[in-house]
């Protein structure tokens, strides 16, 4: 009888152990990057900028985890356009699922800007005016914004996002940002809002302002836009779009504002003996601000290494 009771007791313990383990959460692996900036995090503001994700889910996750490992207390993430490869419901769902799955590794503030691919559906050759409105509506639902251009203040620093109001249509081509006179007037007002001389103002536009070596001119009313920005040398504008490698000269500080290229998450375009090649690099930016001084670092997420570091001193 005692033997039977002992056997029953052992079986009960085993069942209890299995039950507890089934419902207990296993400890999560701690994400720490070899590029970790330290435990003091004494910057006044820190944020990252990712451009051209193009629904590349594995690269996106790789970037999110590495950025969290670098600084888990980061204030914001800026997705600087072409986050989706096509402005379809399917592509947005992939990105939304990725953001949701990695929520614990993301900052609370995520700014989602529009690019040119948000106006794409590869089944359509050219967008009708109704198509354009549908693409804009999908972007606004994804971003939580009211317009394709928007702004917010983070820790008393101004973040201003510009965005194309048309794309891949009879009235706007598939590459340029179509920026209206209304948006330019809005920009003038926002740049003057709480302006303090020398204090950085962060401006974002997916498309490039200046003509590239490949001949890309990325913005309608580009000269007028540059004229407006020139009145504020403390502006740092972040562009994506060209997929240029961060190993090139990507910070131009005397325009008189500063122009920064963000790199691309999905792939980088390289030119080899005049031939264009798409290389599956995964690159982006990490930014720290202390007072009026800004430190910009380029990251290779695959190699887990810094590509460059540049200081932009308050003007």
UniProtKB/TrEMBL annotation:
Protein name: 3',5'-cyclic AMP phosphodiesterase CpdA
GO molecular function, one term: hydrolase activity
Membrane-spanning residues: 7-24
Alphabetized UniProt keyword annotations: Membrane, Transmembrane, Transmembrane helix
PANTHER family, alphabetized: METALLOPHOSPHOESTERASE, CALCINEURIN SUPERFAMILY, SERINE_THREONINE-PROTEIN PHOSPHATASE CPPED1
Calcineurin-like phosphoesterase domain mapped to chain residues: 48-244
Keyword Transmembrane helix assigned: yes
Keyword Amino-acid biosynthesis annotated: no
Species of provenance: Clostridium amylolyticum
Top-level taxonomy: Bacteria, Bacillati, Bacillota, Clostridia, Eubacteriales
């Amino acid at each position: 009888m005692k033997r039977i009771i002992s056997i029953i007791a052992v079986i009960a313990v085993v069942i209890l152990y299995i039950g507890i383990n089934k419902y207990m959460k296993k400890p999560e692996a701690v994400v720490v990057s070899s590029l970790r900036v330290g435990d003091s995090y004494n910057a006044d503001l820190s944020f990252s900028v990712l451009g051209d994700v193009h629904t590349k889910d594995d690269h996106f996750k790789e970037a999110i985890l590495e950025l969290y490992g670098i600084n888990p207390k980061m204030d914001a993430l800026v997705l600087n356009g072409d986050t989706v490869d096509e402005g379809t419901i399917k592509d947005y769902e992939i990105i939304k699922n990725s953001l949701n799955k990695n929520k614990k590794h993301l900052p609370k503030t995520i700014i989602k800007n529009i690019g040119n691919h948000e106006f794409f559906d590869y089944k359509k050759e050219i967008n009708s005016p109704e198509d354009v409105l549908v693409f804009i509506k999908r972007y606004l639902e994804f971003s939580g914004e009211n317009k394709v251009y928007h702004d917010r203040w983070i820790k008393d620093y101004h973040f201003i996002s510009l965005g194309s109001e048309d794309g891949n249509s009879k009235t706007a081509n598939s590459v340029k940002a179509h920026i209206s006179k209304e948006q330019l007037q809005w920009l003038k007002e926002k740049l003057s809002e709480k302006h303090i001389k020398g204090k950085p103002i962060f401006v974002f536009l997916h498309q490039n302002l200046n003509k590239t070596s490949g001949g890309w001119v990325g913005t309608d009313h580009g000269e007028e836009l540059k004229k407006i920005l020139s009145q504020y040398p403390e502006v740092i504008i972040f562009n994506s779009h060209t997929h240029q490698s961060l190993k090139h000269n990507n910070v131009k500080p005397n325009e008189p504002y500063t122009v920064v290229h963000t790199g691309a998450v999905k792939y980088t375009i390289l030119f080899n003996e005049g031939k264009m090649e798409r290389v599956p690099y995964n690159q982006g930016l990490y930014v720290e601000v202390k007072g009026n001084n800004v430190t910009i670092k380029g990251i290779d997420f695959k190699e887990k290494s810094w590509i460059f570091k540049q200081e932009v001193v308050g003007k």
